[in-house]
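Support request, please re-run this one:
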Amino acid sequence: MRYYDSNRKDIPGDYFPMPKAVFRLDLDTGEIALLAYLMYCENRKTFQCYPSYSTIGRATGMSNNTVRKYVDSLRSKGFLCTEPTMVKTHDGRFHNGSLLYTLQPIKPLEDAYYKQQLCEAEAKLNFKKAMAKYEKTGGK
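Re-run finished. Output below.
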């Protein structure tokens, strides 16, 4: 049984940044797990990484199809961009490689999310006002 060593110092580089905003943007738990893993893998200067679906699946406990579903979802929500890569084998042939993931800044996504929430709230309020007016006139 392993016990926590209270004298152990945290090793610099054992952590990676995970913006708090990610938890306020209505993401599915699978999307959060996948985004967290990509943030863990990313190069801090280029904001890119290229783990395979299998690698992501092993790290997050998801099947390749589930990983693909969440990658597509995060891409459609603007959290990441993907590009195909090519791999050259020893015998000179080219094959498809893993996707190259480029993670997008969270702040603009957060701002857009809140703007959308405000628009939806305003639309609901306008609908409520219109219904009240309609009921007040007796449906005429």
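The chain has a mean pLDDT of 87. Residues 106-136 form the longest helix (31 residues).
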